[in-house]
Amino acid sequence: MTGNTKCSTVFPNGRFTIAAIPHGAPTLKTPKRRYPTPALEKGLDILELFALEPSGLTKSDVARRLNRTVSEIFRMLLCLEERGYISRSDEDDRFRLSLKIFRMALEYPPTKRLVAEALPVMQDLVHELNQSVHLGVLEGGHVVIIAQADSPVSPGFYVKAGSIVDLMHAATGHVILAHIPREQCNRAVEIWQHQTGNRIPKDLEEHLAKIREQGYEERDSYQIRGVINITYPVLDENNNAVAALTVPYLARLEDPATPRTVRAALREASLKLTEAIGGTHHPAIAQAEKKPARKPRAPQPQPA
Question: Three-state DSSP class for 128?
Answer without folding.
Answer: helix
